[in-house]
Design brief:
Threonyl-tRNA Synthetase, Chain A, domain 2, BirA Bifunctional Protein, domain 2, 27% strand, single chain, RNA-binding, tRNA_SAD, 34 strands, zinc, five-stranded mixed β-sheet, Ubiquitin-like (UB roll), cytoplasm
């Protein structure tokens, strides 16, 4: 038998017989490793412990300490064990597919009766029983005809269809978890006992069409989550509980911020409270951008298709655009327009009005641009995923030499904005040149180096995202982590020499000749709608005082205090504090509860004692006790807190 050489992570190599499996390699190293091993990586490919290695390769053996590989296998095996549990309880149920997803897995089943919460409990119990049996996980390669006959004999029509959809005549890999069998690429754990029986939970059941086709059978999809240990599971479930409490849709109702209805899918009806947040945030960004050297413009929402064709969006983005047909002056020949899905082509039109000199660059052009994009109804999610939105969009027209400085300037700008809004840290993803691209290698080298130098200059860490840049330039994506650990991608910075060239943008250089400018696409918040949703959930509705829509409610304890309550509210409003009087004939405890649910940061209660002393009883949201303070002191303190951070 021929020999092969396997190289380990420490650089050492060993000779083995060709066809050796990672399980045998682990055993050759130590019995301890053989017991702990769950999978291997062979020449960069995640490898099952049972798969033979036929040639020279680099190899590393994984245990449960290797989080990435461990979680992939754990979740994949949980999916199989769950499907086995379902068929052991209900033998007539047909199985389909069960992939790994973020934090867990799902598996689709064809069953006449709907699964109930009690059923999920029974499945979980059966899964633990299977895990505790510690049965081996085995695999074989079968010819296609044999696999088809096997599934036909077992009345598994969905598996037959899956096999028929696999191109070519290559053999198929079959897996067994104990006696239960499934068609799968693998890899998998060595035995069911390697699964952590206390680190999973079945979450819910949803409907799913077979292969995503609404004309096919409606299946039942069971979702589960799985982790390396029970502590991680507990942490995840706590995060889900917190996320449910913080859901912006729930808080939006409680705070009376907005609503959505079927007559305008994906569009938001902002109520006065929600619109206050919106305008305060927009005013803050407007001031920041003005200070940052931006000029603000406003461009049309409905634009002729000719511009979208010239920009390239008509061919590449048309399915996401809302088309508007207009019969111009009843000429019986309709003009084709589109609601703008982004602002960049229109900004080039503003730039093109009048020939620019290199002395006018960089030109930083900003717009709170209203955009519309078609999103499938199933993808819509509150104000986080909508069809109509406004971006804090800006484009910087500059020379190639100015890219590094503009990038560093933007990172500092974005950092200050995020800090003001309660996000101290963010992650930068640096997406570099893709395989298919335009432009010279020298230009790519220069631009990528400019972005990398800019990040380093600002002192931020970054993660490379190789090959994920646009075909015309690299980009930076900025990701925030909220109060409960969720990551949101919001800001972006993208280098684009392509659109200026397509739309005829030039500047006169120092040499007197025409040159193409670079266009830097940038956004801090992304869409206002989505970012407000993120803010609401991050702060659990308890927004910073300057941004809270209802900052103060002044409530009467007795009706004789009504006039004083109004005087206090007027004094606060005169200092720019959003205050309202509550003189309803209700008990003070009722008022406090109601306004606390509405997340009002400060409630001032006034009775006869407060009138006599010129004081108010102040209670902040979340505090159990009130403080009696002089009215003047309260007005001064709250006026300071109401000042936006850029003006403080």
């Amino acid at each position: 038998m021929s020999q092969i050489s396997l190289t380990f992570p420490d650089g050492n190599s060993r000779e083995y017989d060709a066809g050796i499996t990672p399980a045998e390699v682990a055993a050759s190293i130590s019995n301890s490793l053989a017991k702990k091993a769950i999978s291997a990586t062979v020449d960069g490919v995640h490898w099952d412990m049972q798969w033979p290695i036929k040639g020279n390769a680099a190899i590393s053996i994984h245990t449960m300490k290797d989080e990435t590989q461990a979680l992939e296998l754990i979740r994949h095996d949980f999916a199989h064990v769950m499907a086995r549990a379902v068929q052991e309880i209900w033998p007539d149920v047909k199985v389909t597919i069960g992939p790994v997803i973020e934090n867990g897995w799902y598996y689709d089943f064809d069953r006449e009766e709907p699964f109930t919460p009690e059923d999920l409990g029974a499945i979980e119990a059966k899964m633990k029983e299977i895990i505790n049996k510690r049965e081996p996980v085995t695999t074989e390669i079968w010819e296609r005809d044999r696999a088809v006959k096997f599934y036909e004999a077992n009345n598994e029509s969905y598996k037959v269809e899956l096999i028929e959809a696999i191109p070519g005549d290559e053999p198929l890999r079959m897996y067994w978890h104990g006696h239960w069998q499934d068609l799968c690429r693998g890899p998998h754990l060595q035995h069911t006992g390697q699964l952590p029986a206390d680190a999973f939970k079945l979450m819910n059941v949803a409907g799913a069409y077979w292969r995503g086709d609404s004309d096919r059978a409606m299946l039942q999809r069971i979702y589960g989550v799985g982790f390396q240990n029970k502590e991680q599971l507990k942490k995840h479930l706590h995060m889900l509980e917190e996320a449910a409490k913080r859901d912006h849709r729930k808080l939006g109702r409680e705070m009376n911020l907005f609503h959505m209805q079927e007559e305008a899918p994906g569009q938001i009806f902002w109520h006065p409270n929600g619109w206050t947040i919106y305008t305060e945030l927009q005013n803050y960004m407007r001031r920041k951008q003005r200070t940052g050297g931006y000029v603000e413009v406003n461009t049309p929402q409905v634009v002729d298709r000719k511009l979208w064709e010239a920009s390239g969006h008509w061919d590449k983005y048309q399915e996401h655009m809302f088309i508007v047909e207009v019969d111009e002056e009843h000429a019986r020949e309709k003009s084709i327009n589109a609601l703008k899905p982004m602002n960049c082509p229109c900004h080039v039109q503003v730039y093109n009005q009048g020939l620019k000199s290199y002395r006018e660059l960089p030109l930083r052009m900003a717009e709170f641009g209203s955009c519309n994009r078609y999103e499938p109804s199933g993808a819509l999610h509150g104000i986080m995923r909508v069809r109509g939105f406004t971006q804090d969009d800006a484009h910087i027209f500059c020379t190639e030499e100015q890219i590094e400085e503009e990038c560093a300037r933007f990172i500092d700008f974005l950092s200050s904005v995020y800090k003001d809004l309660g996000f101290e840290e963010f992650e930068i993803m640096f997406a570099t040149r893709p395989e298919k691209r335009v432009g010279s290698e020298e230009s790519w080298d220069h631009v990528e180096a400019a972005l990398e130098n800019a990040i380093k200059k600002t002192g931020h860490k970054y993660t490379l995202d190789p090959g994920e840049g646009a075909f015309y330039g690299p980009k930076l994506d900025f990701k925030l982590t909220d109060a409960i650990g969720r990551v949101w991608q919001c800001g972006t910075f993208q280098v684009d020499p392509n659109l200026p060239e397509r739309l005829g943008a030039v500047y006169i250089g120092e040499d007197g000749a025409k040159h193409l400018p670079y266009m830097l696409h940038r956004a801090c918040l992304g869409s206002f709608e989505r970012f407000i949703g993120i803010l609401i959930e991050n702060w659990a509705g308890k927004l910073p005082f300057w941004l809270a829509p209802r900052q103060v409610v002044v409530a009467s304890i007795v009706s004789d205090a009504d006039d004083y309550v109004q005087q206090v509210a007027d004094a606060l409003n005169a200092k720019g504090i959003r205050a309202e009087a509550d003189i309803r004939n209700e008990k003070i405890n009722y008022k406090v509860r109601e306004h606390s649910v509405g997340k009002v940061p400060v409630i001032l209660a006034c009775g006869m004692k407060e009138i006599e002393d010129g004081t108010v009883s102040m209670r902040r949201l979340g505090d159990k006790h009130s403080k009696v303070l002089p009215l003047d002191e309260v007005v001064t303190t709250l006026a300071k807190e109401a000042t936006p951070p850029d003006l403080a």
